[in-house]
Structure formats: structure tokens, C-alpha cells
Known about the structure:
The complex is a heterodimer of chains A (about 130) and B (about 200).
Chain A lengths: L5 E6 L2 H15 L5 E5 L10 H10 L6 E5 L2 H12 L3 H4 L2 E4 L3 H13 L4 H9 L5
Parallel strand pairs in A: 1-2, 1-3, 3-4
Helix pairs in contact in A: 1-5, 2-3, 5-6
Chain B lengths: L1 H14 L1 H11 L4 H14 L1 H5 L3 H15 L4 H17 L8 H16 L9 H13 L6 H15 L23 H19 L2
Helix pairs in contact in B: 1-3, 1-10, 2-3, 2-10, 3-5, 5-6, 6-7, 7-8, 8-9, 8-10, 9-10
Amino acid sequence: MSGSVGIVIVSHSIDVAKGAADMVRQMVGEEVRVAYCGGNAGGGLGTDVNLILQAINSIWSPKGVAIMVDLGGAETNSEMAVEMLPAERRGSIVICNAPIVEGAVMAAAEAAGGGSLERVRAAAEELSAS
Amino acid sequence: MLRSMIVRGAERIVASAGELCALDRAIGDGDHGTNMKRGLEAVLAKAEDIVALPTGEALSAIGKTLVMTVGGASGPLYGSFFLAAGGAIERGRRLPDDLADVVAAGVEAVGARGRSTAGEKTMLDVLVPVLDALRAGAGRADLAGRVRATARQSTERTGPMLATKGRAAYLGPRSVGHIDPGARSSCLIVEAICDIWEERL
């Protein structure tokens, strides 16, 4: 599935992040490109730029990567992580405005079906009331 | 002078970690002090390498260290401040003459990163008045004292504000009556810098 969009789940809690990734694999299939991270550098609840960068790079796909976040700091740290990537990767990453669990499942389903990064994002963001 | 400012500012934050956590427990997730302490301890550990750099690069190195170690939303916010301030110097601004412009670059970056403006009960409610005080008092002998007073007063003013950004915004009206922890940590850093500035005049 190296030809599919990768999904990164960033939660303040490693347990939430892992649980969401487990649900994605169960519902979409083991072959889906999904990575997750959670918790801060001190081992507590929070988010960490280094861990987000590692997660992005671990499932990097030429088709791009869609990031799912929970509370504000996860989004801010994800934006920071994206800015720290090489310029050629930066344009192929989106941070989705979507509920983290449902968004990850919808995005992964679209990605597994071969959808483009924009379609993956749209699938996740359909869930958010605007 | 940069060494003294880094050390004093970092030590002040480390010493105030408990107070910052207590403020954050009231209207956030209670980890602001712990997070800032971890970041500033990382800056202190690298202080000698940082001060050996040209000023712009030194500020950028502080920013990068904070981004990588603080976590929470504060890491990217404080990190962006120092990265942008360092960038302004690297692009030709000079200290102390262009101090207000350098600070302005940092404040703008915080606003962009947090998609926030003053009045939303955040660190910007200290940083924006501090920048205004720097501009208004440019050239005055008592500038450091005026800036410090502005930082303190503007921190107190976040108490009655209603939070509309950051974790405290989830509390809505219950955020009223508590000083914003990010405003307080910004104030502590500004105060430490003003102290060194006055001691060296």
C-alpha cells in the first residue's frame, strides 16, 4: 500500500492514539498506512514535535499524509512538525479538522480505496460540523 | 548580557513551575509549569553553546529547543516567538536599536501560530502591551521599568478576561477570575530580562 495516503493520529494520550489506530486497522484492514503518537517528552499527557515527526516519516507516502489531531496543542505541534520537514514534503501533508477517531477511520477507508490526499481529507472533514 | 538574560529567565521559570501549574490547573490541564520547566532546563543545559552563536542564531536555537522540548501548545508558541525574533536579527535587525521590531516579529509569529489576537486571555495579552510599551518608551532611561510594570499590570488584567482561545476556552465563563498561565510565564520572562537590562545600565 505504498501507493496510498498515510494517516497519522496525534493525541495527547498514547492510549487514545493507539486505540484509534487499532480501530482503523480493524475496520479498514491491516495493510493501511497508519502511525500514531501521543504524550509529551516527560511521559505525561501532551504532544511532542519529535514524536509527530517520527510518526509522519515512518509512514511517509508519495501520495501524502493526513494528520488527525485531538485538542489544540496537538494541532499546534503538528503544524510545527510539518514546518520542520523538508520543503518537498511539506506540500503533501494536511492536518484534518475532524473528530480524531471517526476522522481517522473515514480517512483511512478513503486512503485504502486509493483516494487522493484531498479526497482523504474531505472524507475526514465531512464529519465535522461547520 | 544574552547569557545573563537566558540564565535569569530560565531560572525564573524553573523556580515558578509550581505556580504556573497551579494557575493552569484552574483553567487548563495543569502542566504549563512542568512543560516550561522541561524546556527551559533544556535551554540552560545548552546555554554555553547558544551564547557562542551570533545573536540571531542564538535566539533561533532557543526557539528550536523550546519547540522540541516543551510540548503542549506552549512549545510551538514560545518556540515561534524566538525563531521569528532570531530570524528578524538574521535578516538585518540590530539590537538594541531595533529591539521593538525584533519583539514585534516574535509577537506576530505567536499570533499567527495560535491564530489569536490580544483580548482572548493568552500570552498575547502580555506580549502585545509589552511591545506597545517598548515602542512608546523608546529612548527613555526608565524603559526597562516601564516595560516590567506593563508586563505585571497586563498579566493581572487577564484575570477578569473570558478565554476564547486555548484550553481555557472550553471552560467559557468559568475561565473568568483566573490569571492566564501563559500570560504569567510571559510576564516572568519579560521581568527577568528587564532585571538584567537595568542591572547593566
